[in-house]
Amino acid sequence: MAEILIVEDEVSINELIKKNLCLAGHHCAQVFDGNDAIALAGREKFDLIILDIMLPGADGYEVLEQIQGTPVIFLTAKSELSDKLRGLSRGADDYITKPFQMLELAARVEALLRRTKRTEQYFELDHVRLDFERRLIFVDGKPADCTPKEYELFDTLVKNRNIALSREKLLDLVWGYDFEGGTRTVDVHIQRLRAKLGLEKRIVTVYKLGYRLEAPS
Ligand code: CA
């Protein structure tokens, strides 16, 4: 899961990107103006920014100058694809020309995140192995039959292992801030995850709070 900022003034494209990246398990923030992008990127830390070039307010090039250090995927019409854009690429970055296939964008996002972020490839506990790269959980060497939300929940527990997480925190991290279901959703998913992974003793209930994955560090 990554925190991604989408900067695109065409609302339908912005929404479509958000929808697809959320389905892939990421958290997305959206802005529709270059100045808003600079302001938000200054306040919050993002793992990746998807940045349109032609924007109201500051354009994509101006935004880029203000957000050094965050990996960027540029969105650009083919006609705008210039040496300037290529010259700006800093190795960690990428660009994609409009119109584009959502699958291609998603693949580029994952590749860029891998290049810039992921250092840990596996997490192992007892008979369970979490493969961050392939987004799979193995039990005794066989892929576990987990839903995307169950994967996301386990991934979140693993990344916060040995820390008690409240049900509300888990809802925010796994389901997102705008999820309208209650904390019971977390309990149901935890039950299923414990059973599917055989980690009843490792995923412990923290009285009156939530859950914690107990793993030797
Ligand atoms: Ca635009």
Description:
The chain has helices at 11-23, 34-43, 60-66, 83-88, 102-116, 148-159, 167-175, 184-197; strands at 3-7, 27-31, 48-52, 72-77, 94-98, 122-125, 128-131, 136-139, 142-143, 165-166, 203-206, 210-213. The strands form 3 sheets. Strands 2-1-3-4-5 form a 5-stranded parallel β-sheet, sandwiched between helices. A 4-stranded antiparallel β-sheet has the order 6-7-8-9, covered by helices on one side. A 3-stranded antiparallel β-sheet has the order 10-12-11. 40% of the residues lie in helices and 23% in strands. The chain is elongated. A hairpin with a 4-residue loop joins strand 7 (128-131) and strand 8. The structure holds calcium ion (CA). The site of calcium ion (CA) has 5 residues, from loops.
What is the structure about, briefly put?
The chain has 217 residues and is α/β, with parallel strands linked by helices. The chain is 40% helix and 23% strand.
